[in-house]
Write a structure and sequence with these properties.
Order of helices and strands: HHEEHHEEEEEHE
Number of helices: 5
Distance between the termini: 83 Å
CATH architecture: Alpha-Beta Complex
Oligomer: single chain
CATH superfamily: endopeptidase domain like (from Nostoc punctiforme)
Length: 176
């Protein structure tokens, strides 16, 4: 019996050490997105974006909402609050605010959401569309980067944002 125990232990160990993660050799494809924004943004949306841009260069600070430091949802919360629009303070609260819109229809002032962490289903980052155009490369957004602070940059020019992008929401209606 004593000789059988080591073999039994090894057999149990080998059987229980199966990998739980499925690996795929297929590389994730980034979608091609055509933009069809024809509506003019409202003056209110343009004012909110203009105010958000005043924080350009502000350093990242978790939970921050001032020029001394802010996080991504703090930028959204502060920019809209300045224009008497009350929004949730957190990214998770913001992801259910307003109306879902297709990325093809985004306009200045719309919110864009990303999953930047290890869980591709968990929204962890938010920004505001600042510029639209006829091409997906024309889309720009302002957000708070943990490494660079508040910055404005192209939305789909970099693979990082293409892969992390999850959805867009409209809080302010554009002009018809």
């Amino acid at each position: 019996m004593k000789r059988l125990l080591p073999f039994l232990f090894i057999a149990i160990l080998v059987c229980s050490c199966k990998s739980k993660k499925n690996y795929s050799s297929k590389k994730r494809q980034t979608p091609t997105i055509d933009v069809n924004t024809t509506a003019k943004p409202s003056e209110e949306a343009e004012r909110i974006v203009k105010y958000a841009k005043t924080f350009d260069g502000t350093r990242y600070k978790y939970g921050g909402t001032t020029k001394r430091g802010m996080d991504c949802s703090g930028l959204i919360y502060t920019s809209f609050k300045e224009h008497d629009i009350s929004l949730p303070r957190t990214t998770s609260g913001l992801q259910g605010t307003g109306d879902w819109i297709d990325i093809k229809e985004v306009n200045v002032g719309d919110l864009v959401f990303f999953a930047t962490g290890s869980d591709p289903n968990r929204i962890s980052h938010v920004g505001i569309i600042t510029k639209t155009g006829s091409s997906r490369d024309d889309l720009e957004f302002i957000h708070t980067s943990t490494s660079r602070g508040v910055v404005e940059e192209p939305l789909f020019r970099y693979e990082y944002w293409q892969k992390a992008y999850r959805h867009a929401r409209r809080v302010i209606s554009p002009l018809a």
